[in-house]
Amino acid sequence: MTGLLDLYSEKGSFLHRMDPRVKLIAVLLLSVLAFILAQLLHLLLLLGFILLLLVLSRSSYAKAFFALKFVLRFMVLIIVLWPLFDRSGTPVLFTVGPLDITEPAVWRGVTSAVRVGCFATVWYVLMFTTQQRDLVRALVKMGLRFDYGLALSISFRFIPTFGLTIESIKDAQRARGLELDKGSFVRRSKNYVSVLVPAIVTALRTADTLALTLQSRAYGAVSRRTYLKEIRMRPSDYVALAVVSLLLLVPALAKYVCGMSI
Amino acid sequence: MIPRPEHDGKDQALFLRYVKFTYESGVNALKGVTLEIDRGEYIAVVGGNGSGKTTLAKHLNGLLRPTSGQVFVSGADSSTMTSAEMSRAVGYAFQNPDHQLFCGTVQEEVSFGPGNLGLPAEEVRRRTDRAMDIMGLSDLRDRPPLTLSLGLRRRVSIASVIAMEPPVLVFDEPTTGMDAREADELMAIIRKLNGEGRTIVLITHEMKLVAEHANRVVIMADGRIVLDSRTREAFSDTELLRRSNLLPPPVTQLAHKLSQIGVSKDILTPQELVFELTRGDET
């Protein structure tokens, strides 16, 4: 359960060592780049670069496969559906009933699919190589209020716990003879009340305990808090930041200043 | 330990045959467990965390299905039964009452289980009243269960399982978080249910409970049953207990230390030790 919710795995790649702020910015810039690029060849180059990063991140095959399976399914869906809705251009390749499948539409579908592929995969690379709490740390360092950062990391932390609680509640009600997935829609919705109420009650009790725990550890006692682990930019982080900025800047200038079609 | 194929299963409450179970995550929680539980037994399943005891217990009422092997309930193969059907035969009281309480009143909560069995309203009412009576909840019938203390909440959750009147009852760590008096009261009720002829399966790592209540103990370690014997015999094998990360109750440990002066090693309760010592004086 937790294996799939927490994508991070402990490996020693340069992507793992990179400042989480740089990684976050890089992923944002590369996502923007995926939307600036219009030509299929360029998008394929970008996808190739992102897949190279994925390989360099030394992610396990199982995890990479798990992530890419979702991305691939989505891409196939786009390629299949796009020409059905976009019927402009010539030549018409073939006709299915009232639908004309045109060649440009097929290519536009493939282009959009690769774009979405770039966009999704680059975020996976981030999640594979960055611990959730490092992400939160980066956001706090970049100006997010610590309270919100803490709330964010607590939410991440409790997703798997809460998943287990719900499973346990379902088991407990099944043991009382409840058949959760039987009957009409109304019947089934009513059945789920017996899962929802204990789930909410347990969540509230957990939140209450958590608040006490935070207070007993002097949370909020001083307004300027210090950190055990400070994140600092190293020279290699500046290099990475420069490379990614150029990667976005050059095509952006070419497109919007020189008016080139890229 | 070896299953008897010619067994007709008539006096068997439960029979697990070569049960193996692997979780989706790849953890082999049960590595071939064979266990026969006769009707009316009071059996304790003990073992450290991760030994597979809860996984085993969840096979008894169909919450988990064996990856390989079979589970027989009253002699019938359970592979074709739904969890709801199995819940008629095997009741399971969960450790955390907050994972099942959701009704507005204690009475509604207790009647939820028998209601699910599709019984006539009159019968549901009779069973609900009886279960609340057994658990000493009759005066609280109109109270919202979620506002009660932990000890009382657990009683409500146990009442809601008893109300289904299954011949077998599984209790998962029933006394966790209870004070001594609450725990004693609960254990007395469980003993009474056993006296009525119900089969009791107690999952615990509190050896005092095992020593004082169970007639038979099954020790699990690493997904296997490492010992299955009368409670008295189990506690005399300190070496095996130690390897399973279990300690016999203090009074048994004391008896072991006193064995040089002729005290029997299979003492389970303080009363027995007192009796043994005073008898020793007379001879």
What is the topology?
The complex is a heterodimer of chains A (262) and B (283).
Chain A: H1 2-5, H2 14-17, H3 20-36, H4 40-56, H5 61-85, E1 92-96, E2 99-102, H6 103-129, H7 132-141, H8 146-174, H9 185-216, H10 235-256
Antiparallel strand pairs in A: 1-2
Helix pairs in contact in A: 3-6, 3-10, 4-6, 5-6, 7-8, 8-9
Chain B: E1 12-22, E2 28-38, E3 42-46, H1 53-60, E4 68-73, E5 76-77, H2 83-89, E6 90-93, H3 106-116, H4 121-134, H5 150-162, E7 168-172, H6 180-195, E8 199-203, H7 207-213, E9 216-221, E10 224-230, H8 231-236, H9 238-243, H10 250-257, H11 270-282
Parallel strand pairs in B: 3-8, 3-9, 6-7, 7-8
Antiparallel strand pairs in B: 1-2, 1-4, 4-5, 9-10
Briefly say what this structure is.
The complex is a heterodimer of chains A (262) and B (283). Chain A has 262 residues and is mainly α. Chain A is built from 10 helices and 2 strands.
